[in-house]
Amino acid sequence: MDQVKRTVAIATLGCKTNQFESAAMEERLREAGYQVIPFEEGADLVVVNTCTVTAATDSQSRNLIRRARRLNFDCRVIVTGCYAQIDPSAISSIPGVAMVIGNDEKKDLLRYLAEEHEAQFVAVDNHSHSRGQLPLSLSSFTERSRAFVQIQSGCDAFCSYCIIPYARGSSRSLPTSDVLRQIAGLAERGFPEVVLTGIHMGAYGRDLEPETNLLELVRRIEDEIELPRLRLGSLEPTEIPDGLLSLMSDSDKICPHLHIPLQAGDNEVLRRMNRHYDTAFFHQLIERIHRKLPEAAIGLDVIAGFPGESEVEFENTRRLIENLPISHLHVFPYSRRPGTPAASMPDQVPGDVARQRCAILRSLGERKNRSFAEQFIGRVLEVVVEGGNRGGWGRGLARNYLTVQFRGGSKLQGRRAWVKVEGWSPAGLRGSLI
């Protein structure tokens, strides 16, 4: 291929694991001589890294594929990710798709590109009952202030609504030595914050020899690597030991931020979801976290409109959240995924009802977030500067996951800064650099 035409754009939907894997593919493509350009510029090669957690993300994936062709009719479209893994035939039927590869096949993207394929090429391993491949590795992040390290992939939980175990396979962990090496390398390159990611991070280390766990990994990062900030990705409520909370409380390195999937605040709904805790356990957990880490951000995932969810059950969820000392919510309407037990459950909730319930929960989440944020007015917060300088305002992320805007700082992106917080706005806290 002519060097001038070796342009590539990567479009990514979904979770931080997908974002990490897109960054890893981008790094390999750059090393192979490709020029990475924005999606809207119509690249010769387009990689669409799909998500299938909801019907909406399936639709977004299809729209991105068609849009790539409108931008450059002659482009070569490669589709990967969870939607490609679960339903490669649906992806293959979209005009212009040259290649469909599964999640495990992402690591072989360059090899597939080098091969000559006269017809459409499909490589999707059915790993729903296998261990699958280890997570991809990444040595740097282009044009990003924070770096991500994927320590684990796959999931063995099989919540009744979730397609991800079928798309990602069984849980498998990156060896601790590999995780430490990646983080040390990113720290040496000057990244002020590293985020640990995974599909089911609390399962980290169970499949390794010798067996280990997330707490031991975080302890080793704390003890062995000079790193300003370490942030943890999503953790299941049953996999947050007191030892981890104590380590976070004593650490100047680990960010006081926990992302925890609640999913529902009613015991009967939790049972139908195949979630292995009840509301009393969850309430006690959040109160315990708040006592140990009183200024920590605690974000919850919640699903509205799960099959059979009555008005009473929904109100139980709303009331539980109202009474919890949390900082923000991620709210999703239930999405029926063929192949999951929930898809065939009776009493599917109408879409308009689910959307109304989402709106109620999102409004509650906004109030919780404002209340949490306003307690820091008058304080000095350390931020990692992320945004450009739109309208003269820079943007950074505080240790406890608050967005902080400030005047100036155009040359600070990717560095730490300290901001005196002076007020709140819907876009986040606002203050002045000091």
Automatic annotation (TrEMBL):
PROSITE patterns, per the entry: MTTASE_N, MTTASE_RADICAL, RADICAL_SAM, TRAM
Pfam families cross-referenced by the UniProt entry: Radical_SAM, UPF0004
InterPro entries listed in its UniProt record: Elp3/MiaA/NifB-like_rSAM, Methylthiotransferase, Methylthiotransferase_CS, Methylthiotransferase_N, Methylthiotransferase_N_sf, MiaB-like_bact, rSAM, rSAM_horseshoe
Residue ranges annotated for the Radical SAM core domain, each copy included: 141-371
Any one GO MF annotation of this record: 4 iron, 4 sulfur cluster binding
Record-annotated TRAM domain positions: 374-434
Keyword entries, A-Z: 4Fe-4S, Cytoplasm, Iron, Iron-sulfur, Metal-binding, S-adenosyl-L-methionine, Transferase, tRNA processing
Catalytic activity: N(6)-L-threonylcarbamoyladenosine(37) in tRNA + (sulfur carrier)-SH + AH2 + 2 S-adenosyl-L-methionine = 2-methylsulfanyl-N(6)-L-threonylcarbamoyladenosine(37) in tRNA + (sulfur carrier)-H + 5'-deoxyadenosine + L-methionine + A + S-adenosyl-L-homocysteine + 2 H(+)
Broad EC category: transferase
Cofactors required: [4Fe-4S] cluster
Domain MTTase N-terminal: 6-118
Enzyme Commission (EC) number: 2.8.4.5
NCBIfam families (alphabetical): MiaB-like-C, MiaB/RimO family radical SAM methylthiotransferase
Family, as annotated: Belongs to the methylthiotransferase family. MtaB subfamily.
Purpose: Catalyzes the methylthiolation of N6-threonylcarbamoyladenosine (t(6)A), leading to the formation of 2-methylthio-N6-threonylcarbamoyladenosine (ms(2)t(6)A) at position 37 in tRNAs that read codons beginning with adenine.
PANTHER family: RADICAL SAM PROTEINS, THREONYLCARBAMOYLADENOSINE TRNA METHYLTHIOTRANSFERASE
Name of the protein described by the UniProt record: Threonylcarbamoyladenosine tRNA methylthiotransferase MtaB
